[in-house]
Specification:
single chain, 227 residues, alpha+beta, Double-stranded beta-helix, three-stranded antiparallel beta sheet, 5 helices
């Protein structure tokens, strides 16, 4: 079993993976350092998946790394969250997937166009689905908490705070108030609504560095040059 470590240094968080004749997968462009006898491979996708990747923010091509050695992935001002899949299926919000063991099956799922449009994601919103057994690492803006929903229990988020949900959770966009007028007057608009049964992974409080550099791209580039 590959060893995943969540590390931090100089206010940055990163993932380090140790392999012993094993295989792992990672997000496209996530590699920082690689040492040892490790081979990277990329499975060429079909035309449909290539087009889906181009039209959405979710990568459809994830390289695999096989062999013995150590892989260090790119650091982030945000957070990385690791959990174990035990036969269940999770749907990950776009840009949340970061890495996983080779035993984890990755596929893509497209949200309904109407839901995607009202969520502010455009007409096309592809998300990653993970299933099987093994470790999965997600990228988030800050600490992650798990929320358990019972039958018909709802969870409402006014923003992209839910980074993953189990397959049984229903996701849709709904008005924040009962009427259009009250929704407009409230200033909250349309919210993301999740209904159980199932589990959610929620990250609603960003690290201040993540918020600061996320809202100031020029500052982030200057900091990267200094660091």
């Amino acid at each position: 079993m590959a060893k995943f470590e969540l590390l931090d240094q100089e206010g940055m968080h990163f993932v380090q993976i140790t392999l012993e004749n094993e295989t792992v997968q990672a997000e496209s462009g996530a590699l920082c350092l690689m040492t040892g006898d490790i081979t990277m491979d990329v499975k060429l996708p079909g035309l449909g998946r290539t087009l889906a990747s181009y039209l959405s923010e979710e990568a459809q091509i994830r390289p695999t790394y096989t062999g013995t050695g150590t892989i260090t992935l790119e650091a982030s001002f945000g957070r990385f969250h690791m959990f174990d899949l035990e036969g269940e299926t999770w749907i990950l919000d776009s840009r949340s997937y970061w890495a996983s063991e080779g035993s984890v099956r990755l596929s893509a799922i497209r949200e309904r166009a109407w839901t995607s449009l009202w969520a502010g994601e455009g007409f096309i919103d592809w998300q990653t689905k993970v299933a099987g057994h093994g470790k999965v690492v997600l990228a988030s803006q800050g600490p992650v908490e798990e929320v358990v929903l019972n039958n018909d229990e709802r969870f409402v988020a006014n923003g992209k705070y839910v980074i993953a949900r189990t397959q049984g959770v229903t996701y849709r966009i709904a008005r924040s108030a009962r009427s259009l007028l009250k929704t407009y007057m409230s200033g909250e608009g349309y919210c993301r609504t999740y209904a159980g049964p199932g589990r959610l992974l929620v990250s609603s409080v960003p690290y201040w560095r993540y918020r600061l550099f996320g809202e100031n791209p020029d500052l982030a580039r200057n900091a990267a040059g200094v660091m």
